[in-house]
Amino acid sequence: MYDAAGRHIGEIVLARDVTELRKAREALVELNNELERRVAERTAQLEAAYREAEALSYSIAHDLRAPLRAISGYARILEEELAPILPAEAQNYLQRMGNNAVRLGTLIDALLSLQRLSRQPLARTAIRLNEALDDALNWLRSEQPGRDIDLAIEDLGHAEVDPALIRLAFANLLSNAIKFTRGRNPARVSVGSIERNGERVFFVQDNGAGFDMRFADKLFGVFQRLHPEAEYEGSGIGLASVHRIVQRHGGRIWAEGEVDRGATFYFTLGPATV
Known about the structure:
Helix Hairpins, Heat Shock Protein 90, two-stranded antiparallel ribbon
C-alpha cells in the first residue's frame, strides 16, 4: 500500500480459512472411492451369480434329460408291447406321457438356447440383410413344405450385425408368421423396412390370427402364449429369442396386431444399419 507521494507505507493481507473446503473435498474423494468399491463389489457379485445360474441351468438340464429319456422310452415300450391287452384309455395315457416327456425335453433345449444367446459374443460383419432373410426362408421351406404363401420381400439394405443371430431372428419371426397364417387363403407375409423419426425400422407382417393389443407386453416373455397350444404349436421361446437378439444389437422390438386380422412385428438394429 502506498501514500499519495508514492511511498510504501504498508501492506494489506487477505486470508481465507479453507479448512472446511479441504474437508469437503476429502469427503467427496472418500465418497467417490466408496462408490467405486461398492460398484466393483456389486459387479463381482452379479458375475458370480450369473456364472452360478449358468452352471445350475446346465446341471439341471443334464440331470433332467436322463429321466426324461427313460420316461419316454418306457412309455413307448409299454405302448408297443402291451397295446393288444391295454384298454384304449390306458393307451391314451401312455401316449400323453410320452408326448409330454418329449415336450419337456424340447422346452429344456429351448431354454438353454435362449441362455446361450445372452453369453454368445457378437461376431459383427457387414452383410446384406436379404441374404440372412433368404437363408431363413430356405430353412423354413425345407422344414414346412407344402405351404402356399404369398411372400412380399423388399430390399432391406446392409447392416453390420452377427449374421447367425440375425438369421435366427428372421427365422423365428417368419416361422411365427407362417404358423399363425395357417388356414388363411391366401396366406400373406410381408418383410420390409420404413423410415421412422430418422431411424430404419424393419417389419414382418402377416394376415394371420393376430392378437389382442391389451396383451402385447406378454409377447416377448419366455413361455408366454396368447393362443392355445393345441391350435398353434411351439416352445414359447421364439419371440423371446428375437427380443434378446435385437437388444444385443442395440435395437428394440415391438408389435401391433388385431384379433383375426394379422400382426406386424417391428424392430430396429441400432446404428448398425445402412
